[in-house]
Phosphoribosylformylglycinamidine cyclo-ligase
Amino acid sequence: MAVDYKSAGVDIDAGARAVELMKDAVKATYTPAVLAGVGSFGGLFSAAALRDMQDPVLVASTDGVGTKTKVATRAGQLGGLGQDIVNHCVNDILVQGALPLFFLDYVATGKLVPEQVAAVVSGAAEACRRVGAALLGGETAEMPGVYLEGELDLVGTIIGAVDRPRLVDGSRLQAGDVLIGLPSSGLHTNGYSLARKILENEDWDAPRAELGGQSLSDALLVPHREYVSAYRALSAAGVDVRGMAHITGGGLIENPPRVFPEGLGAVVRAGSWPVPPLFELIVRLGEVELLEAHRALNMGIGFVFMLPAAHEAQALEVLREAGETPYRIGELEPGSGVRLEGNA
């Protein structure tokens, strides 16, 4: 009996259909710097885009969306995952002052469903357009036996650039500098294993009064947001941003110290910003301790700007004019790590 690739679990035709479904969305992200994209063995991006920089520095990051994929497949809502992975990666390189040039995605599944893959990649393309990045290429992998049927994994790689004189590395941070936090849109892409464990016996589809009528599925799948526009506004206004932190896995406890110089720590005051109802629900149902909650979840703060106290008033005004709702959540102090004060 003849054996073909499809009978072994890999459907080449389904892969081709997925590419066809996503092609227009991907091409819509192209700028004149893109020389080759969909269908090429390698994406081509003109380095002439960097010629106006004095000393261009490339900044790269790779990440995934974790077990948020399990929530999305359970709910049958995959489009937001593409936005999640792009914005997560964009925010990671933004911490060093880099703006995105292009993005690459990797979607892996046990059985390829073209419409599902196209929904993910189209979501990524939408997020790329919003931040001015090209979705230069990617890979769709069908791997039966590695991934369970119905499961999906999503990874992204971003390449950005910053002029060396504008590099933000935290080296100029000082005691007394303030921490300005911007709200997250939800869990973003971290803490889903904890959330799923705590919420596993809840009804995920019914509207819940404490979530403003949203279901758990909808609340958990709100896409990760980006903070590029907020940084651009601060930069254009001349605010001295000395450090930044993307609040991902490790929360407000583990992420800010990644940019602190030796000898500096910070105090973060729980209660200085409103904790969204979804986080309150997870913490209450799971009886999660305050410190653990701020390590495992972002607790409503997705990004932190660190700047001199003398620039605080200007920064708050600029951010509000940009449509943000900023909060002073703490300040830097001699020491190390993050000290959590107050009650959420």
Q: What stands out?
A: The two ends are 66 Å apart (CA to CA). The chain is about 30% helix and 25% strand. The chain has a mean pLDDT of 91.
